[in-house]
Amino acid sequence: MGTLGSMAAASSSPSRPDALTLEVVELIGSVVARYHEEYEEAAAGHALTGAQARLLSLLSLEPLPMRKLAHRLKCEPSNVTGIVDRLESRGLAERRPDPADRRVKLAAATAEGRRVARRMRESLRFAREPLAALTEQERLALRDTLRTMLDADRGTGAHQA
Predict the structure, then answer these.
(1) pLDDT given for residue 156 in this prediction
(2) What SS3 string covers the chain?
(3) Quick check: 44 pLDDT over 90?
């Protein structure tokens, strides 16, 4: 019995995930891949690259300094400058001084940029349709589980609403 107990403990150790954990990780990977696929299609439908669409989506929520955009997109600030240049040339974004520090330039979505970002979000059917099939309780449980996973990964216990 001792051997069986140690085998069970070994299979649940952090270094060797159990079959259920591996299946969940695989399913998360499939969901992420399908989301990115549809996101890229939605971006292309608006003649945007995926990077341009992600940046425009962030800017549609609030104006941000280039350095913060680079951090959120996990890329170099010089890349962000080029992406903002292209969005600006299409009238989807603009640069403006930061009211708190006029030495800092903020990138911001224009009214047209916010409209494009909203239409893109609305065209993403992948998650919306399957989620609509879940009960509110199931959606709440899924949301809470995803938040718990993200919080644990960040090393915090706080939920962000």
Answers:
(1) 52
(2) CHHHHHHHHHHCCCCCCCHHHHHHHHHHHHHHHHHHHHHHHHHHCCCCCHHHHHHHHHHHHCCEEHHHHHHHHCCCHHHHHHHHHHHHHCCCEEEEEECCEEEEEEEEECHHHHHHHHHHHHHCHHHHHHHHCCCHHHHHHHHHHHHHHHHHHHCCCCCCC
(3) yes
